[in-house]
Design goal:
Largest sheet: 6 strands, mixed
Shape: globular
Strand content: 15-25%
Number of domains: 1
Bound molecules: adenosine-5'-diphosphate, magnesium ion
Radius of gyration: 17 Å
Helix content: 25-40%
Order of helices and strands: EEEHEEHEHHHHEHHEHEEH
Length: 233
């Protein structure tokens, strides 16, 4: 079966420094996969490389069997692969609505519109004319998710949604996932928070120092093995 998204022997470098060593990952239609790992493990590099933001060999990333490694980021968004980047990366001088509309430039057909994003996150409709800088961290994260959804992705890549947010806010942000998945969207969540990752994912990959050290279904992975794969002890 051809995977929706696949990496094969994926490598990534920053100059002389090699950040990823032969990553094999597969995502099937409608699946939710988590990528866990400590700070510096290579999680963001993996997502950014899939999105064309870092160089890759063409065959190292496949979307529905087609080689897309190293393609232009706009071309990858146009194929329906959207990133919620680490640290939100909003335009802080623009309003909520302007930020959301930035995500729609790919003009892909699909269910996600401004109205639909506002239904998912009602607080964003209340604050639609407010500039990004005036938002709370949780609201900024909601805008970043909404902006990615505006591209009507079939694959949503989320980089550390919970970073810097209080537990109750993390819960509000993650509460959006079921509605997103209900549209048939496949989701990759990168998390340092192992419990959060295990709670939402059908399958988990653990990265350490640029390599996959463990993979499986949450129910198959005991805490001791996860700890060893995550921390290397
Ligand atoms: N722009 C960059 N230039 C050089 N090295 C980088 C850059 N971004 C990340 N790295 C290095 O690549 C490795 C993986 O980083 P990253 O993918 O950000 O890890 P994670 O997201 O798991 O915390 C780390 O050693 C990090 O220092
Ligand atoms: Mg990261």
């Amino acid at each position: 079966m051809t995977a929706l998204l696949e990496t094969q022997a994926l490598e990534a470098r920053y100059g002389d420094f090699q950040a990823l060593f032969g990553i094999d990952l597969a995502l099937q239609d409608g699946e939710t996969v988590a990528i866990i790992g400590a700070n510096g493990a290579g999680k963001s590099t993996l997502l950014r490389t899939i999105c064309g933001l870092n160089a890759a060999a063409p065959e190292a990333v496949r979307h529905r069997g087609q080689a897309i490694g190293g393609a232009a980021p706009e071309a990858i968004v146009a194929r329906g692969i959207a990133l919620v980047p680490e640290g939100r990366r909003l335009f802080l001088s623009l309003t909520v609505e302007e930020n959301l509309l930035m995500g729609a430039y790919a003009k892909r057909p699909g269910p996600w519109t401004l109205q639909r994003v506002y239904r998912l996150f009602p607080v964003l409709e209340e604050r639609r004319r407010v500039s990004g800088i005036q938002l709370s961290g949780g609201q900024q994260q909601m805008v970043a998710i909404g902006r990615a959804l505006m591209a009507n992705p079939e694959i949503l890549l989320c980089d550390e949604l919970s970073l810097g947010l209080a537990p109750i806010i993390i819960r509000d942000v993650y509460a959006a996932l079921p509605a997103i998945k209900a549209e048939g969207t496949a989701v990759v969540v990168v998390e340092q928070d192992i419990n959060q990752a295990l709670a939402v994912a059908g399958r988990v990959y653990c990265l350490m120092a640029g390599r996959v050290t463990l993979q499986g279904r949450p129910e198959e992975l005991d805490r001791e093995r996860i700890r060893a794969a995550y921390f290397g002890v």
